[in-house]
Amino acid sequence: MNNEPMIRTVNLHKSFGALHVLKGVSEHVSPQEVVSIIGPSGSGKSTFLRCLNMLEVPEEGQIFFEGVDITDKKVDVNLHRQKMGMVFQLFNVFPHLTVKQNITLAPVLLKKKSQQEADDMAMELLNRVGLADKADNKPGRLSGGQKQRLAIVRALAMEPDVMLFDEPTSALDPEMVGEVLDVIKNLVKGGMTSVIVTHEMGFAKEISDRVLFMDDGMVLESGTPSEIFNTPQNPRTRDFLSKVLM
Amino acid sequence: MSFTTICENIVMLLREYWHVFLIEGVSYTLLLSVITVFFGAILGSLLALGKRSRFRIVRGIITAFVEVIRGTPILLQLYFGYFILPMMVPALNLSAFTSICIALVINSSAYVSEVIRSGIQAVDHGQTEAARSLGLNARQTMLRIVLPQAVKNILPALGNEFVMMIKETSLASTFFVGELMTSYLKVKGATWLNLESLIIVGVIYFVITFTLSKVIAVFERRMRAGE
Ligand SMILES: Nc1ncnc2c1ncn2[C@@H]1O[C@H](COP(=O)(O)OP(=O)(O)OP(=O)(O)O)[C@@H](O)[C@H]1O
Ligand SMILES: [Mg+2]
């Protein structure tokens, strides 16, 4: 049972108009696995990640999440999204809600929890990321790092089976990157299945079970961090790493 | 005609005809504007909603309607309301005031629907994506995430539409329905004091719209500060 991948994509193709962004991506993510995706800008990393929860709808191919083909039009993708948390580069916290309401809105609205249960859980999550004192504030005045920590626990409140991160630290001031990476590290240590698009090579090396190198809409190489970072096989991987690891 | 004479005439007009200006004129102007913006907002919301319909034909009809209303003069629409509308539906026995109201409401709804559409569009798309990624459906996302934020853009714009309408309703005086500009026509007709009547009406319009604009600006600032 545990060998069945949590997410499996089959030959994903996605275009924006004439621009062919994903050119047949077949990948898988096992339960409790931590997969990082690296690659040059515009290579389709975000698009691939956003296909996993159908924020982008691929023209061709299938996505199996916990055994269900969520590209099937008869499937209610909203139900499956509840089990897939997503964290965005630009945080996308809800500015009209308080920090606590940001967390409780979805679980209560989607009837996963009563308001009381959700409130309790929100406080627990906020404690965990050091934001408990901000619970009743609007997120407007939070720093970038605080917003991103809020966005992470907002996703966790739905008790997802997998977390998708799209460059969670690249919009942050350098001094705030650490606090967000720490939250993700703790999450991953706790066994959270994660797919992380990142430009932080050190971070990818440290926490990943597997690293994917994407270029030009394809996964060109996949391996353990040491395979990818120490003995890359594909010349394009070598070329990319030599540029970013200078 | 000296400055003092003008001033004296104005004082005299205000003493003799204050109720025509301030009671009839102002109340009808405000009444027309309130009715117009209120029903215009309701109809405009429905139009904005319809513009997001799944059905292409619904979207097409609404777009055509909005473009026609925005592309023709409001005075022409008032003529249409005043002369053609009662002819088309004689059974309703529309009064001049009602016909003009209907024309103004229709005009306003087209503008309001655009105000709402652009207010919704101004909400960062990332908000929708975050909500959908949590599992909210399109409707829940609109009601709980997008609209509450769009209101901050829409309400001040609706207030400005109200200020605009206060000025636009002056065109209804063409049909003598009794708002401020009609007061001017009446008093001018009775006294032949053209300039003085115009000054009085102009000052009243200005005081109303200027005050309202300031109130809206304060309101808008409060709302933005609330975040
Ligand atoms: N909604 C969209 N409409 C049109 N083009 C898009 C859209 N989203 C992405 N693209 C284009 O698709 C290509 C791949 O984009 P994607 O965001 O997946 O790249 P990426 O690997 O995440 O890059 P980066 O490292 O800069 O984030 C880019 O050329 C981008 O401009
Ligand atoms: Mg990207």
Structure description:
The complex is a heterodimer of chains A (246) and B (227). With 246 residues, chain A is of the alpha/beta class. Helix content of chain A is 37%, strand content 24%. Chain A has nine helices and eleven strands. In chain A, helix 3 (99-109) packs across helix 4 (115-128), helix 3 (99-109) packs parallel to helix 5 and helix 5 packs parallel to helix 6. The longest helix of chain A is centred in the last third of the chain and has 16 residues, at 174-189. The mean pLDDT of chain A is 95. Chain B has a single domain (3-226), classed as Orthogonal Bundle (MetI-like fold), CATH 1.10.3720.10. The A-B interface holds A 53, 55, 78-79, 81-82, 84-86, 88, 90, 92-96, 105-106, 109-110, 138, 140, 151, 154-155, 158 and B 124, 126-127, 129-137, 140, 144-145, 148-149, 152, 226-227. Bound molecules: adenosine-5'-triphosphate (ATP) and magnesium ion.
From the N-terminal CA to the C-terminal CA of chain A, the straight-line distance is: 42 Å
Q: Provide the structure class of chain A.
A: alpha/beta
Mean pLDDT of chain A: 95
CATH topology (fold) name of chain B: MetI-like fold
Class inferred from helices and paired strands of chain B: mainly alpha
| Strand segment tally of chain A | 11
Bound molecules: adenosine-5'-triphosphate, magnesium ion
Listing every helix as H and every strand as E from the N terminus to the C terminus, the arrangement of chain A reads EEEEHEEHEHHHEHEHEEHH
Mean pLDDT across every amino acid position of chain B: 92
Number of strands of chain B: 0
What general form of chain B does the structure show? flat
Rg of Cα set of chain A = 18 Å
Rg of chain B, Å, rounded: 21 Å
CATH superfamily of chain B: MetI-like
The description of the largest β-sheet of chain B is:
none
Portion of residues within helices of chain A:
25-40%
- For the termini of chain B, the CA-CA separation is 57 Å
The total count of helices of chain A amounts to 9
Proportion of residues in helical segments of chain B:
over 70%
